[in-house]
Automatic annotation (TrEMBL), chain A:
InterPro entries in UniProt: GvpL/GvpF
Compartments reported by the entry: Gas vesicle
Pfam families: GvpL_GvpF
Protein known as: Gas vesicle synthesis protein GvpL/GvpF
UniProtKB/TrEMBL annotation, chain B:
Signal peptide residues on this chain, from the entry's feature table: none
Family classification: Belongs to the gas vesicle GvpA family.
Top-rank lineage group of the source organism: Archaea
GO (cellular component) term, any one: vesicle membrane
Region: Disordered, residue numbers: 70-95
PANTHER family (UniProt xref): GAS VESICLE PROTEIN A1 (PTHR35344:SF4), GAS VESICLE STRUCTURAL PROTEIN 2-RELATED (PTHR35344)
Keyword Endoplasmic reticulum applies: no
Protein name as catalogued: Gas vesicle protein A
Function: Gas vesicles are hollow, gas filled proteinaceous nanostructures found in some microorganisms. During planktonic growth they allow positioning of the organism at a favorable depth for light or nutrient acquisition. GvpA forms the protein shell.
Gene this chain is encoded by: gvpA
InterPro entries in alphabetical order: Gas-vesicle_GvpA-like, Gas_vesicle_GvpA, GvpA, GvpA-like_CS
Organism: Natronorubrum texcoconense
Keywords for the protein's UniProt record, in alphabetical order: Gas vesicle
Annotated GO MF terms: structural molecule activity
NCBIfam families for this protein: halo_gas_GvpA, PRK09371.1
Amino acid sequence: MTNRYVYGVMNDDPVEFETDAVGGADRVYTVSHRRLNAVVSDIDTTSPEETDEDAQRHDDVLREIMERDGGRAIVPMQFGMAFESDRALKNVLRGARPAFRRALNDVEGRIELGVKIVREEDAEVDDDAVEEAVADKLESIAAQSVPNDLFSDRLVLNRSYLVEREDREAFDDAVAELEEQYDDLMFRYTGPFAPYSFVDVKIGAQQ
Amino acid sequence: MAASSGRRPDSSSLAEVLDRILDKGVVIDVWARVSVVGIELLTIEARVVVASVDTFLHYAEEIAKIEQATAEGDLEDLEELEVEPRPESSPQSAE
């Protein structure tokens, strides 16, 4: 297995640990270029199949890293970023170094949390008023937020928030207060996730 | 200060993980993942995390420069392209 499956990029010390990795490997380690470390495991393909199990493993590895040493920063990859070789991977770390460094700087010390607010089937809800109340409460605590797709008309709000680790409890409390205030609405409060929604970096090759 | 609510986010939802992992995060196209020799990389950062509209416009301008440089095949200039650190100010979404 000479291909490398990449979970994310960090700039702290290298790591190595045993776990159930994507594609059947049992060890996660780092491939480095200067101070950037790609968190990888061995794999025998450059286009891994999307399965629920492997998606979960990808996420579990990122969570493991995020919980290390009191909370490390990692720039998460989308599922499926497998490289042909260490050389190809290092070439990307080198070529896109400024982008990785800026993204790491953006997410340092922060986690992603998700809030979905759902109405009952026939409930009359003033979406704008809810949105404003939620923004008043949460935006001042969060470092940043982005809207997600309102894929159902029962969804009143669907956002991801980037929150400083130290503000996490204040954010929990603010969500709880909103839930109390709107006890006829269902709140889905999820995370913490690696900051997937707050790194928008695309790297291509000139052909 | 009121006692903590004890409210915790749910970390066990596979659907929530899939929403993110299949659609977000860093994307590297297959040519950059399999090729090595003499390859020119092209990086596009949408910079979701911006502190103000001014900063966002600044990034938008930089991205336009990247696109222009790409169109002209003038990739060497990209090495020099640096974006100023964003000022710390009130959070704003980059919608």
